[in-house]
Amino acid sequence: MTQSHSIYHPQLNHQGMKVRILAPTIPSPPENWLDPDAMVHVIPAGVCPSVLNAVPLENAQASEAEFSHLGQAREFNEPAYQCPAGLEPAAGAVIVEPDGRVWIVHPTNQFGGYTRTFPKGRSEGQTLRIAAVREAYEEAGLLVEPFSFLADSKRSQTFTRYYLARRVAGCPAGMGWESQAVSLVPADKLVSQLNRPVDHALVTALLQRKSEWRGWFSDEPWLDAVESAYFANPGSRKLASGHRVIYTIDEFRARHGIWPTRLSMDQSLLHVLRREVFSPLGWSRITDRLQVDGDAAGSLIASDEAGRSYNHEEATCNKPTGIGADVWIWGVPLAG
């Protein structure tokens, strides 16, 4: 979506000159940030929430030393890299969020013919991992940690190694002049936002690993703090009653392809969940998503207005892949 007038990027280019944006992007409404199924579009110096998925969104000043530290922060194996003759080595980052969305950038004035793409750039003598971190910061305003190899991509001038990465700091509103916007996009909508087949291939590689998504964030140090905010006490997260709710919602979505709108249960279970399992904040996040009642004696049922339903007693729930009910409700993987 674009505005009818042109503006200048708040950051100067490498020659110290102002960069005119010919067709500025329109930012998305604030409510999109908290909806895992919605896209977010951020413009330079735009408005962002203070926190997303328990990680602060704050402009960060980064140095080469910081890029180096983040590029080496996590140990993982990757295949040997061999850049074909005639191409230059480059690296990029596919930055994933716990809520199932991915960050992409809008090159200013569609530079290189890209309407949107993943952050990437030439290695410029740095290691590929460090280069990926640098490009994520320069193009998206985000500080990231690469944690896994994703794919190699042959481009017109470069042979680019892409890493999966997690955001640890920064804010997309601080994007450099090379980007006129940064977007947060649900993984299953990425292809519709990317105009180059080479990027579509990266999406395919990403979605082939969707079953791993929850595990990518299971060791986040901030999960303990989030748990204490959403659960009644340190042991509540492990209570079976809470897991029954999460897996009932997950099973409804697995069977019907959409999230439920209503959760019905026994009055005694309703009391336990509100008083012993979830904190007031944690419970409010549930009721923000679902209409909850105690009208299902002896049962736990997820349903919607179309009459679709799933009763927890019908069968053993499958462990969810990709984003689960806990991510849909609280923005982070808490079910464990």
Count of domains: 2
Strand content: 15-25%
What's the tally of helices?
9
**Average pLDDT:** 90
Order of helices and strands: EEEEEHEEEHEEEHHHHEHHEEEH
CATH class of the largest domain: Alpha Beta
Radius of gyration (CA) equals 22 Å
CATH fold-type name of the largest domain: Nucleoside Triphosphate Pyrophosphohydrolase
- Helix/strand/pairing category: alpha+beta
The name of the CATH architecture of the largest domain is: Alpha-Beta Complex
* CA-based shape: elongated
- Unreliable stretches, pLDDT < 50, 5 or more residues? none
The first-to-last residue Cα distance is: 38 Å
In short:
The chain is an alpha+beta fold. It has helices at residues 64-71, 128-140, 190-193, 197-207, 223-230, 240-256, 267-277, 280-289, 325-330, and strands spanning 7-8, 20-21, 40-42, 51-52, 55-56, 88-96, 101-107, 120-122, 142-154, 158-170, 179-186, 262-265, 291-293, 300-303, 309-311. Helix 1 (64-71) crosses helix 2.
